[in-house]
Automatic annotation (TrEMBL):
Catalytic reactions of this protein: 2 D-sedoheptulose 7-phosphate = D-glycero-alpha-D-manno-heptose 7-phosphate + D-glycero-beta-D-manno-heptose 7-phosphate
Protein name (database record): Phosphoheptose isomerase
SIS domain: residues covered: 34-195
Main location: cytoplasm
Keywords (A to Z) from UniProt: Carbohydrate metabolism, Cytoplasm, Isomerase, Metal-binding, Zinc
CDD domains associated with the record: SIS_GmhA (cd05006)
Its EC number(s): 5.3.1.28
Keyword Metal-binding: yes
Pathway: Carbohydrate biosynthesis; D-glycero-D-manno-heptose 7-phosphate biosynthesis; D-glycero-alpha-D-manno-heptose 7-phosphate and D-glycero-beta-D-manno-heptose 7-phosphate from sedoheptulose 7-phosphate: step 1/1
InterPro entries xref list: GmhA/DiaA (IPR035461), Phosphoheptose_Isoase (IPR004515), SIS_dom (IPR001347), SIS_dom_sf (IPR046348), SIS_GmhA/DiaA_subfam (IPR050099)
Residue sites binding substrate per the record: 49-51, 62, 91-92, 117-119, 122, 172
GO terms for biological process, alphabetical: carbohydrate derivative metabolic process; carbohydrate metabolic process
Length: 195
């Protein structure tokens, strides 16, 4: 089985190398948007399904607790964690609305939605983006493949960070690196260089 393992590592490395050539400008722009929101009393709401739900929570924990240095807590909410809210919305309305209804309650103008979908086609993430726009929030979309239904929904001030791969797992592996890059850039811009 070791050749299979080596193949997966190699594919992940190649996807990251391809991403390195295209993603830095979008990651920089996303970090600038997030920092501007945080400096204006805004917060970041994050959502996604499956592995991307884990990514949303990974990001919010690094904001609320810490990333790599001591600094004040930063405001973020993962919309994937409240099982009572999520099950009741899915049961009474539809699974498509599990994030959008939370955004319509919690989202304020100037907040940022971090919308994560490797295909760009998850209906509840699409509805989340509609809700964010209705609340005058900006959107950072982490996508893959061809951007799916999310790409054409985004407004000029939004940022899409689209990983150049058609394989869900490879896209997710780069999404985590993007999330850590965003955390690093947020800390750097808000609190300066370490040491
Ligand atoms: O982690 C994985 C696959 O690596 C899965 O849990 C995956 O996240 C789920 O199938 C998601 O429902 C896929 O949604 P999306 O990325 O297309 O929006
Ligand atoms: Zn996964």
């Amino acid at each position: 089985m070791q050749p299979r393992i080596q193949h997966m590592f190699q594919a992940s490395i190649e996807t990251k190398q391809n991403a390195l050539t295209v993603l830095p400008p979008a990651i920089e722009n996303a970090s600038l948007m997030m920092v501007s929101s945080l400096l204006n009393e805004g917060k970041i709401l994050a959502c996604g399904n499956g592995g991307s739900a884990g990514d949303a929570q990974h990001f919010s924990s690094e904001m609320l607790n810490r990333f790599e240095r001591e600094r004040p807590s930063l405001p973020a909410i993962a919309l994937t964690t409240d099982s009572s809210t999520i099950t009741s919305i899915a049961n009474d309305y539809s699974y498509e609305e599990v994030f959008s209804k939370q955004i319509r309650a919690l989202g304020q103008a100037g907040d940022v939605l971090l919308a994560i979908s490797t295909s760009g086609n998850s209906a509840n993430v699409v509805q989340a983006i509609h809700a964010a726009h209705d609340r005058n929030m900006h959107v950072v979309a982490l996508t893959g493949r061809d951007g799916g239904q999310i790409a054409p929904l985004l407004l000029p001030d939004d940022v899409e960070i689209r990983v150049p791969s058609n394989v869900t797992a490879r896209v997710q592996e780069v999404h985590l690196l993007v999330i850590h890059s965003l955390c690093d850039l947020i800390d750097h811009q808000l609190f300066g260089s370490e040491e």
